[in-house]
Amino acid sequence: MSDLYWLTDDQMARLVPYFPKSHGKPRVDDRRVLSGIVFVNRNGLRWCDAPSAYGPYKTLYNRWKRWGERGVFLRMMEGLAAAEAVPKTVMIDATYLKAHRTASSLRVKKGALVG
């Protein structure tokens, strides 16, 4: 299946700092499992329908469930969002703005005090 999704080396390097420490038995390939989790969620599949290239579907589900309960994915998203901070100045090109049709009812009447 050539439509499989695989995390790149750069993406993995950015995610590794958020992985929990492995205690005892080493984890199976993180790239394979995380790529499988992304693939299943992105395509709205059931875990048992995950392509075998990602490994056993039970491994995908267990990692998703355990890391989700421990807040690992939340920390990943927060960390990645903070790393790509929004610029302080945001410029908007007026050609892309559309006013809602009810915006005309918000006009200020002449002589009304605005403050």
TrEMBL record:
Residues 7-77 form the Insertion element IS402-like domain. Pfam families: DUF4096 (PF13340). This is Insertion element IS402-like domain-containing protein. Transmembrane segments: none annotated. It comes from the Bacteria.
